[in-house]
Amino acid sequence: MTTGSPGTTIRWSPSWFDLDTGLTSTQGCGYRQYSEHDIQCLFHVEGLRMLGLTLQEIADALDGDAFAPKEMIDRLMARTRDTIARRQELLRRLDDVRSTDPGDWGDVLSTIALIRGLDDENPSTRQYSVLSAGSGDQHTVMLAGAALSEPDPHVAGALGWALARIGDQAVPVLAQALTGPSERSRRRAVEVLAKIDSPSATTALAGAVDVRKTKQTYDTRDQALVTDDDGTHVRH
């Protein structure tokens, strides 16, 4: 695109002239000729394109009577949040696939199938996906994460069974959940570690009990402290 004084010829997408953008021009030898007002309008169009507006939204934006800036910005923000959420979900799925250390594309496809199965709204489909996952440890992190958050007891049972077959490979992920903020995840981790019932699983359970006892001791000690008006701490 080349610009100059009013009336300079500028190459521009013909799609803008299919909408009511307020652009006017004359044509000659395959070029369009614009006025100073049109050049300013084109800069406005380019700025709105950078915000992510569609062609029709830009046309509406250039129509002062039909365009409410706040409403359009809110719409763009909602669209951007949706895009970010979808990108984050894609990143999570890629991380799940990478965590399985796939050796070939067959491994990638089997992981994708498991991801889709675990994300399905139907509990029966989730349970079938778990039971079809096999006894290999390449999906340990994914299955353990699903077990900690699964709301359906039957699917949770299948996940616990699958992790028990995997054995000690699942212990680090489950042990980490034992000290997490979610009560359901802590309870589920205890249940699955009990099913694994190996020396490392028993050690993880014992360690979590020690941590919780230590925390309860400090909590009790903190509750025994009272702050005076002058800011000093005294113990009852």
Structure, described:
This protein is mostly helical and 236 residues long. The chain contains 10 helices and 5 strands. The chain has helices at 36-50, 55-62, 69-99, 105-119, 123-131, 140-149, 153-166, 171-177, 183-196, 199-223, and strands at residues 9-10, 26-28, 31-33, 225-227, 233-235. It has a 3-stranded antiparallel β-sheet with strand order 1-3-2, with no helix packed on it. It has a two-stranded antiparallel sheet with strand order 4-5. Strand 4 and strand 5 (233-235) form a beta hairpin. Helix 1 (36-50) packs across helix 2 (55-62) and helix 6 runs antiparallel to helix 7 (153-166). The longest helix has 31 residues, at 69-99. It is elongated and about 80 Å long. It starts with 8 loop residues before the first strand and ends with a strand. Mean pLDDT is 75; it is low at 1-14, 17-21 and 213-218.
List keywords for this structure.
disordered N terminus, single chain, 236 residues, 5 strands, 3-stranded antiparallel β-sheet
Compile the SSE list and pairings.
Layout: E1 9-10, E2 26-28, E3 31-33, H1 36-50, H2 55-62, H3 69-99, H4 105-119, H5 123-131, H6 140-149, H7 153-166, H8 171-177, H9 183-196, H10 199-223, E4 225-227, E5 233-235
Antiparallel strand pairs: 1-3, 2-3, 4-5
